[in-house]
Design a protein that fits this description.
GO terms for molecular function: hydrolase activity. With 372 residues, this protein is of the alpha/beta class. It has one domain: Alpha/Beta hydrolase fold, catalytic domain (Rossmann fold, 3-Layer(aba) Sandwich), CATH 3.40.50. It has helices at residues 8-20, 40-43, 60-71, 82-85, 91-101, 159-169, 188-203, 221-235, 258-262, 271-281, 317-329, 354-371, and strands at residues 32-33, 111-120, 123-132, 139-145, 172-177, 209-219, 244-247, 306-313, 334-343.
Length: 372
Amino acid sequence: MKNKFYKLSITFCLLAVGFTACNSGTKTTTDNDSSTTDSTATAALKPAGPAPEWGKTIKPEMQTVIEKLVSYGDKPLETLSAVDARKNHTPTDAVMDLVKENNMTIPQPKVDTTGKDIDVTGGKIHLRIYTPKEGKGPFPLIVYYHGGGFVIANLDVYNASAQGLAEQVGAVVISVAYRLAPENKFPTAHNDAFAAYEWAIKNASDLKADPAKIAVVGESAGGNLAANVSIAARDKHIMIPVHQVLVYPIAQANMETDSYKMYADAKPLNKAMMGWFTEKYLTTMIEAQNPKISLVNANLKGLPATTIITAEIDPLHDDGVMLANKLSDAGVKVSSRNYEGVTHEFFGMAIVVPEAKAAQAYAAEQLKAAFK
């Protein structure tokens, strides 16, 4: 998506299909999940060409999204300034266009949305709050952090995930527009993420939410932020989340892992982009070893039970595996699931990618169990 806000009624409806069009999704049972689901909507999505060299195992629906993304002809993100990079199309654009081109049914939102600006150190940030239309509450509360390498993307790009969590879990979701780099260097995003969590605790009751049932969820850079929120809550002796869901999180700084090497040229995320994100967010490369960035170096003891979701065709695949192992070694209960044949950013694509439908159902299942 070009970095501009669409009319919200259109954006919410189209992006929400990531979850709500597939509410009856299959539930996977194995850690390395290659399941697919029957769907008349996705049956029509067939790739135009052969599987790319960097992803020979890619699923047809996933490949169709990538082909659409490539068709826009955007310049490589790592060759652009941050301002210009934010104007590039995103995987969400590709999904939205496929939905339109294939006349897919778009369900009506099951949530109401409101916006709220809150004060943080050095400025303000915006929150988008999703509240279930049915039920009186108090609802569970999820604080959600979007991806984008701390540099790009916004609440619209990741609306499908946030809205879908609210609808599938039956929870109030607060999606956090933390400030982006390079205008705001490390650790600004991390500080904003925790400030939003503190605000959520203090204002839960006013949001028709239960302050004793709060979880954190994040994708990619947002997965890193979510884990850091749990760590900060523990260290500051405030209520820690009851659960955290980390979707292909950034968890360490070594770009020579097997998955970085194998998927160095993958789309929509590649190794060069990760280097670009790191350079934009950090002031010096020494900061890459900071435990806030390299979560595998952090003290992980006493963190909440954790769900980790990874994608096979993703430079960050091994980050998720390493973090799962480190959390387990620290005594944290960890459930993890890898989805084969899909790439980074697949999680919000359930209307067109069956594996995303399964992953979202799994995340919702884990959260509902934690809230009980």
